[in-house]
Amino acid sequence: MPKKVDHETRRREISEALWRIASTRGLDGASLRDVAAEAGISLGRLQHYFRTRDEMLGFALRHINELADRRIRDRIAGMAAEPTPRAVLRACLSGMLPLDDKSRTGTLVGAAYFVRAVHDESLRAEAREGIPRLCAFFAGQLRRAAERGELPPGRDAEDEAMLLISLVDGLSTYVLLDVHPPEKALHLLDLHLANLFGTPPPDATD
After folding, report:
1. Which distant-in-sequence residues (6+ apart) come within 8 Å of 154 by Cβ?
2. Are residues 61 and 126 in contact, defined by beta-carbon separation less than 8 angstroms?
3. C-alpha 36: how far from chain center
4. What is the CATH number of domain 61-197?
5. Domain ranges within the chain, ordered by starting residue
6. pLDDT-based confidence at 105, cuts 50/70/90?
7. What is the pLDDT of residues 43-96, one digit of tens each?
8. Rounded to whole angstroms, how far apart are CA atoms 198 and 74?
9. Is 137 exposed, middle or buried (0-12, 13-18, 19+ CB in 10 A)?
């Protein structure tokens, strides 16, 4: 009896093959045929799961974002019973930095998507939907911190949230280019949070 393969599992495996290609030579080098070879399946079999390259790219982008989101949620779940807004923000922001091999691959794939999305409306739509949601979550944490008296008055939550996202994007780029080591990027993130909250950074471990 032939082995039954879950459709979504196979799609995720194909996505991971795409990531391996994208992390080494970018998305322009990731044709359907190349991805099929990397995944160890025929081109016809790949097209059974993804009819077009754009469909494959869109699914792979959503999948890698879901994995990153899950990793950050797991990190927060492992904290104290009620982590402070600052601790939640640090966990999220440090989780977005390429601090290890897995997160570095994710960041490289994200950079490859960014280059393609500049000229691709469908991929650009993912960013237009995802970034506002992330900004809203960060702003909510900052408003919660202000209510608890942990944030100096006069801070605009939405602006500060967007600055946090922009900071991590910039630091991630510098880590990928070897301008900064991962430890320096994390130090600069903690320095910004200390300035934002008006208090020294607490002792924290990754």
Report:
1. none
2. yes
3. 25
4. 1.10.357.10
5. 61-197
6. confident
7. 999 999 998 887 888 788 788 878 878 888 887 787 777 889 999 999 999 999
8. 28
9. middle
